[in-house]
Write a structure and sequence with these properties.
By secondary structure, this protein is mainly alpha-helical. Helix content is 49%, strand content 2%. It has eight helices and two strands; from the N terminus they run ααααααααββ. It has a two-stranded antiparallel sheet with strand order 1-2. Strand 1 (184-185) and strand 2 (188-189) form a beta hairpin. It starts with 9 loop residues before the first helix and ends in a 10-residue tail after the last strand.
């Protein structure tokens, strides 16, 4: 990096030169070390480049906007392990599950990865080095016959049909509502848009 200064005295110039030489490899002179753009600025770039074209884009936008607000919209260079650790701790203390916190930070990591691919961010992803929180596996639960009867009595029309389909196949509500006539043939259902991407 080229550095230019004007000094009245040669001694001052030499002292400054020595200072620059000593710190030439430090973060102060590293062009990638200090990104002063805010997290919301970075998010807007990602949103235009990729985010708005993603599946469930509206939900992701709401999630990331909340993350940004909860973090206090820091500058990119301020996103350190200490800040991320504080964010995780605050979320857990507020009753949020570890799996949810992991998904939130994974979403942020994906944003930085995407922007690094097009040269908008440093290739050093600030989230990547953070270990994931240990997640507790939820206990499997089932609806009793009584629960099923109450559920079916609470809905009617197409909602009743979709409910029966979900109960019969284990499909998620969103998956069932995306079905088309051609997906139901000869008593067989083919789900095309599933959460895990499988048919």
């Amino acid at each position: 990096k080229r550095v230019q200064r004007v000094f009245k005295k040669k001694a001052d110039a030499l002292a400054f030169e020595r200072s620059v030489m000593l710190t030439a490899n430090s973060d102060e002179w590293n062009s990638e070390s200090r990104d002063y753009r805010s997290l919301s600025d970075i998010f807007q770039i990602w949103w235009i480049y990729k985010g708005r074209n993603n599946k469930y884009s509206a939900n992701r936008k709401r999630t990331v906007t909340k993350i940004i607000n909860d973090m206090g919209n820091p500058s990119v260079y301020q996103i350190t392990p200490k800040l991320l650790g504080q964010y995780r701790s605050d979320r857990l203390q507020s009753g949020v599950k570890a799996s949810t916190v992991n998904r939130e930070l994974n979403l942020l990591m994906g944003i930085f990865t995407s922007l690094a691919e097009i040269g908008e961010c440093s290739k050093t992803n600030p989230i990547k080095g953070l270990s994931k929180l240990k997640e507790e596996k939820p206990e499997m639960s089932y609806l009793t016959k009584s629960d099923i009867e109450k559920l079916l009595n609470a809905v009617e029309g197409d909602y009743w049909r979709i409910t029966v389909l979900c109960l019969s196949t284990g499909a998620r509500w969103g998956e069932a509502t995306q079905l088309r006539a051609e997906n139901l043939l000869h008593g067989r259902v083919t789900f095309m848009k599933t959460k895990n991407g499988r048919h």
